[in-house]
Amino acid sequence: MITYQEAQDTLRSMTKSESLLRHARTVELVMRVYAAKLGEDEAQWGITGLLHDADYEAHPDQHPNVIVNMLRERGEEEIAHAISAHYTKWGVPYNSLLDKALLACDEVTGFVVACAQVRPTRLQGLEAKSVLKKLGQKSFAASVDREEVKLGAEKFGVDLKEHISFIITVLQQHQEELQLQPVEAQA
User: What sequence ranges are listed for the domain HD (predicted)?
Assistant: First the structure.
């Protein structure tokens, strides 16, 4: 299996944007904790989350094909397939729990981070109901596909509010690393 260091090196070779690197890390963290909760392979799930958008910045017109092909060449078919399926409009079937988990965690984790960034207390005290309310505001984080958020939770078989609470809890445990601690704590 691809090592964590190899995955990080691959990501960093194609991604320079701090916000994209943070997004990769947040999805990785959530995927790892879900894997532990569900008795799945934490390393595999984490690497899938870490690499899902690895080629997005360097090869936007070919995303996700560049990273998918790289992983397939290395024999990482399960990770490659999950990454190839992390957007429903690509029409790739959801064959495994890993595929469904990545779809469920990608958009909504990014949205939770966006919600945290506009709050002085960031993740501290952030509740799922506030995130759900923001999801209803089409102008907030307008690039987030609300239908993908809904479909992801459905395909993964989780209640969206509980899913968002789970994500918030995971990210709160890493708020300093993610630079999402309260504003006064960042000084």
Answer: 21-92
Tell me the CA distances in angstroms from 29 to 165, 168, 171, one per residue in order.
14, 11, 8
Tell me the whole-structure pTM to 2 decimals. Answer: 0.96
Task: Give burial (CB, 10 Å; 0-12/13-18/19+) of 54.
Answer: buried
Residue 142 lies in a domain: yes
Number of domains the chain is built from: 1
CATH code of the domain in which 137 resides:
1.10.3210
186, part of any domain = no
Domain that holds residue 144: 4-178
Q: What is the pLDDT along the chain (187 residues), one digit of tens a residue?
A: 999 999 999 999 999 999 999 999 999 999 999 999 999 999 999 999 999 999 999 999 999 999 999 999 999 999 999 999 999 999 999 999 999 999 999 999 999 999 999 999 999 999 999 999 999 999 999 999 999 999 999 999 999 999 999 999 999 999 999 999 887 655 4
